[in-house]
Structures are given as structure tokens and as C-alpha cells.
Design brief:
3 domains, 6-stranded antiparallel β-sheet, 6-stranded parallel β-sheet, about 40% helix, about 20% strand, NADP, nitric oxide dioxygenase NAD(P)H activity
């Protein structure tokens, strides 16, 4: 446990740290990548470029300091971080690197205000949190390794099939190259793709598993990320997968990870509402397929938002699921009116709102799972709050560095 003195010091400096948190985290990454370039491979440089990683770490530091006297509040965040670390194969020996550079960054930014007492207190607080994470990550690694066919680190897979799902999304069906068993996963989890890109070193990428568990393959469905401006290139790995990885080729994968998972026990007792925006459909599709394939007779409502019919993926697959379940409602909305002759259903043109959720879903007693672009996520949370949905019934996932939805504008 942390000493009373450390808790008191950390509580006292929290406002000052919060005021300088992003400056500290920017300096932290600068120092760490310069002093320990070997860890750069763990970090998505696109998130570094946009500042998303720095903001997420700043938020995490502030949250930890604020709740330093009640760390139990942070356990959901600890689980998210531990799962992410295990997806990247981060080990206990990496923690001192982070600790040393974080303390150095605090000294750089706070200057004389970072007294020896403050630095020692922050060091103790960091070591305490690191111990919690290392312990949880050891459990995750042990679980991964102990499953039939389980592994940690990298394992080679063969691309069995490559299927175009829309103008932007392509699915990759992946089977173990060694023909050994394939461990199961929880609906909503992701795997990690390791690519040796021919042009530049890149970090691993997490992609949600879009099929249900207990299949002879893993399936990921990748959106081609296009650059929004000339100065911002398109997604390096997503474009490489679309353009250069074909059936018969091999890729290295990390094992399934992630805490955004379907609660099958609750799902047997309560309606399930799945709200998908864009490529956020992938983990929710895995959840829907799991519920239907396991013949769980709870009411299911699947709402899918897409920009237009051209980029609308998995329509036929979800329609097929609805046909196999006695109480499955499927609704589709587009940002813009569908093109004539597309033959796709469209139940509403515009954005998902509290009124639509109220009309289409059993919101009063349902569990909500939602995933999509940040504005979509913020809008959904706001709509659910308007409808009086309890936060304990809302589960969501960000693709990218985690932050509170209230921070999204």
C-alpha cells in the first residue's frame, strides 16, 4: 500500500500536474523515444502525430492522481491498459523505462517545483500502479498460454480468404500456419497484426475480430484509412493490407485481447442493443453472431449507421442473422440519401438521436454496446443519458487512445 505521506503529497500536487499534464506527456514521449528508441515500435506514430496518445496519457495520469486514495475506482481503466499491453507483448522489464522518463519529464516541466519529496512520492505512486498492472498482465499472459493452441507474442497465420465487404472494408480470414488448434476468444476482442512494412518501421495494429468464436479461423475486417489532407497520409497498415496482402500469404498475429466483451450472463436475461457507427460494426457483429449462434433468445436490436450505401458493410450478413433469430431487429441509417438502384435498405437519413433510439430499441431495460467514430460515440452517450439509461448499462470501445466521451467535441 502507498504511504500516507505519498498519498497526501500526490493529492496536493494534483492541480499543478493537471494544469501541465499534456506538456508533461509530450516531454515524456520526446525523452523516451530519444533515450530508448527500442520502445518506439510499441506506439502508433499516427496517434503521436495527432496528439491523441499524449492526451490519453495525460488523462490517465490525472485520473490516477485524483483517485490515489481510492484506486479501486480505476480498475476498469487498469484492465483496459493491461489488455492493451498484453496485445503488444509489453513485459515487466519495460516499466522502469517508462518510470524513469516520466519522472524526468515531470522534473523538466515543473522545474524547481518538483522537489525531492514530490519526485519520491510520484515514484512510489508509479511503482504501486506498475505493480498492479504487471500482476494483472502476468495473469493474462498465463491465460493466453494455457489455452489449447494458445500463445503469447507472435504466431504465423495464413490468409485463407480475402473478401471485399464494401468500397472501404475488406475482410481477412486467417488460419494458423502450423495447423495447430486455434484458441477461442470473447466476442468483442481484438487481435494484433504485426507487419514489417517495406517503407518504414511501424507499430503493431489492433483489429477487432468480426466473426464469432469457435470458428476454424479468425476474421478481421479492415477499413482502408484515407488521408484527410495532403499533409496527412492514409493509414499505412490498412492500405498495405488492402493492396499487398493476398490469400496464401502469411502474417504474424498476437493473441486475442480486450476488455470490451459481450456479457453472456446478462445477455441471457436482458435485451441487447448494438449501436454501430462505420467500422465500429466489427466487434458488435461478433457479438450479434455469438448471440444468434448460441441460440440465446434475448431480444437483439442492431442499429448500423454508415455514410452511404457504398460504404455500408455486412448488410447481408446481419440480415441473415435477423432471419435466424425470433426477436432480432435491424435498423440502418445513412448520413446521406441512398443512391437509386442500390437495393439497400435505409430506415432513416441523418444521424442517430435519442428519438430514434427511443423508437427503435427497448431502451428501458436493455444493455447497450456501442462503437464507432468519436463524434458518433459522444452523440450516442448523450442520447442514452437523455433517455435515462443507467451508465452501468452502457459499454463502449474507442478505436485508438482511450479518453472520456465528455472530452470529445
Amino acid at each position: 500500500m502507498l504511504s500516507e505521506q505519498t498519498v497526501a503529497i500526490v493529492k496536493e500536487i494534483t492541480p499543478l500536474v493537471a494544469a501541465n499534464a499534456e506538456t508533461i506527456t509530450r516531454r515524456f514521449y520526446e525523452r523516451m523515444f530519444e533515450a530508448n528508441p527500442e520502445v518506439r515500435a510499441f506506439f502508433n506514430q499516427a496517434h503521436q502525430h495527432t496528439g491523441g496518445q499524449q492526451k490519453a496519457l495525460a488523462g490517465a495520469i490525472c485520473a490516477y492522481f485524483t483517485h490515489i486514495d481510492n484506486p479501486g475506482v480505476l480498475m476498469p481503466a487498469v484492465e483496459l491498459i493491461a489488455q492493451k499491453h498484453c496485445s503488444l507483448n509489453i513485459k515487466a522489464e519495460h516499466y522502469p523505462i517508462v518510470g524513469e522518463n516520466l519522472l524526468a519529464a515531470i522534473k523538466d516541466v515543473m522545474g524547481d517545483a518538483a522537489t525531492p519529496e514530490i519526485v519520491n512520492a510520484v515514484a512510489e505512486a508509479y511503482q504501486f500502479l506498475a505493480g498492479i498492472l504487471i500482476s494483472r498482465e502476468a495473469d493474462i499472459y498465463q491465460h493466453q498460454q494455457s489455452q489449447p493452441g494458445g500463445w503469447t507474442g507472435k504466431r504465423s497465420f495464413v490468409v485463407q480468404r480475402k473478401v471485399c465487404e464494401s468500397s472501404e472494408v475488406t475482410s481477412f480470414y486467417l488460419r494458423p500456419a502450423d495447423d495447430e488448434p486455434l484458441p477461442t476468444f470473447l466476442a468483442g476482442q481484438y487481435i494484433t497484426v504485426h507487419i514489417d512494412h517495406p517503407k518504414t518501421p511501424t507499430s503493431p495494429r489492433n483489429y477487432s475480430l468480426s466473426d464469432c468464436p469457435d470458428q476454424p479461423h479468425y476474421r478481421i475486417s479492415v477499413k482502408r484509412e484515407k488521408g484527410q489532407q495532403e499533409s496527412v497520409p492514409g493509414g499505412l497498415i490498412s492500405n498495405h493490407l488492402h493492396d499487398s496482402i493476398d490469400a496464401g500469404q502469411t502474417v504474424d498475429l498476437g493473441p486475442p485481447c480486450g476488455e470490451f466483451t459481450l456479457d453472456l450472463v446478462r445477455s441471457a436475461e436482458r435485451p441487447v442493443v448494438l449501436l454501430a457507427g462505420g467500422i465500429g460494426v466489427t466487434p458488435l457483429l461478433s457479438m450479434a453472431k455469438t448471440l444468434v449462434n448460441r441460440a440465446i433468445d434475448t431480444p437483439i436490436c442492431f442499429v448500423q449507421a454508415a455514410r452511404n450505401s457504398d460504404v455500408h458493410a455486412f448488410a447481408n450478413e446481419i440480415e441473415e442473422l435477423a432471419g435466424r433469430h425470433d426477436d432480432f431487429t435491424y435498423k440502418v441509417l445513412y448520413d446521406t440519401p441512398p443512391d437509386a438502384g442500390q437495393g439497400r435498405r435505409c430506415d432513416h437519413v441523418g444521424f442517430l438521436s435519442a428519438d430514434l433510439i427511443g423508437q427503435w430499441t427497448p431502451y428501458g431495460d436493455a444493455d447497450f454496446y456501442f462503437c464507432g467514430p468519436k463524434p458518433f460515440m459522444a452523440s450516442v452517450e448523450n442520447a442514452l443519458e437523455q433517455l435515462g439509461v443507467d451508465p452501468s448499462c452502457m459499454r463502449y470501445e474507442f478505436f485508438g487512445p482511450k479518453q472520456e466521451l465528455s472530452q470529445v467535441t
